[in-house]
């Protein structure tokens, strides 16, 4: 069975889903997107993702084509039709199709494209062994709080990571870590304090980050929201990343230097377990 995707009102085999040449997503990267984790066939923390999508659309002034209930229905339907039990739902909205011109077109209708990916989250090797990270300059624009389709800086950052034998890039600005190419970055100091950069226009407000902040508080683990430098990260006892498709993943080296003893650390493991418990909890408890 071929993969079923959603495009502008229809569920289609991926081979039949075609986007017009003049789509502004293709021409300008003029659009925004979201990505939601799927565990046990269920969307994880979906309301928070839809809230961020609504905000991204508002900030770039693209009309939101669906209500929250409609989005949820489309996501669930796509997960069901593709038989996804563990993985990811991706969806993007562009400003639509119009002759190439920078200003907003008069009557363009937003393009909506959605697909699923099957992916191991709970048993991902990265979660067991930890991953390597390299630091790169943060080359992005100044509205990183918007989940924009313009991902060229992240493409270059993550390719640089791969070429250095690492699995993620941590982007750095003025000596401070902003975030990962597609994840939020955390360190745990030798005193056991979990540190994450505060929200601002400099980073994406990670949904996994947000959930973990609340969950860790409940578990009595204190999180500190402040900037941290690359040197502080090198010297950390533990480091980890969070994202909707990976949850909490340990980082065992940064720029080739071992973090702590070079193995996934105990606090990171505990935070991963806490997050998984939330994601697998009965629906009423998770929302
Ligand atoms: N920062 C960036 C730049 C990202 O692309 C992502 C992945 N969406 C994240 C952080 C993590 O966000 P979330 O937990 O919502 O997936």
Give structural attributes.
D-amino Acid Aminotransferase, Chain A, domain 2, 30% helix, nine-stranded mixed β-sheet, alpha+beta, 287 residues, globular, D-amino Acid Aminotransferase, Chain A, domain 1, binds 4'-deoxy-4'-aminopyridoxal-5'-phosphate, 2 domains
- The second-level CATH architecture of the largest domain is Alpha-Beta Barrel
Number of domains: 2
Q: In percent, how helical is the residue content?
A: 25-40%
Beta content comes to: 25-35%
Which structural category fits the helices and strands? Answer: alpha+beta
Q: How is the CATH topology of the largest domain named? A: D-amino Acid Aminotransferase, Chain A, domain 2
Q: How far is it from the N-terminal to the C-terminal residue, by CA?
A: 33 Å
Anisotropy-based shape? globular
- List cofactors, ions and other ligands: 4'-deoxy-4'-aminopyridoxal-5'-phosphate
Fourth CATH level, the homologous superfamily of the largest domain? D-amino Acid Aminotransferase, subunit A, domain 2
The radius of gyration over CA amounts to 19 Å
Ranges where pLDDT stays below 50 over 5 or more residues in a row are none
How would you portray this structure in words?
Acts on leucine, isoleucine and valine. By secondary structure, the protein is α+β, with helices and mostly antiparallel strands. It has two domains: 4-118, D-amino Acid Aminotransferase, Chain A, domain 1; 125-283, D-amino Acid Aminotransferase, subunit A, domain 2 (D-amino Acid Aminotransferase, Chain A, domain 2, Alpha-Beta Barrel), CATH 3.20.10.10. Helix content is 30%, strand content 28%. It is built from nine helices and 15 strands. The protein has helices at residues 24-28, 46-60, 68-81, 125-129, 152-163, 207-218, 230-234, 266-280, 283-286, and strands at residues 4-7, 10-13, 31-39, 42-43, 87-94, 111-118, 131-137, 168-173, 176-180, 184-188, 194-196, 223-225, 238-243, 247-254, 257-258. The strands form two sheets. Strands 7, 8, 9, 10, 11, 12, 13, 14 and 15 form a nine-stranded mixed sheet that branches. Strands 2-1-6-5-3-4 form a six-stranded antiparallel sheet. A hairpin with a 5-residue loop joins strand 10 (184-188) and strand 11 (194-196). Helix 6 (207-218) packs across helix 8 (266-280). The structure holds 4'-deoxy-4'-aminopyridoxal-5'-phosphate (PMP).
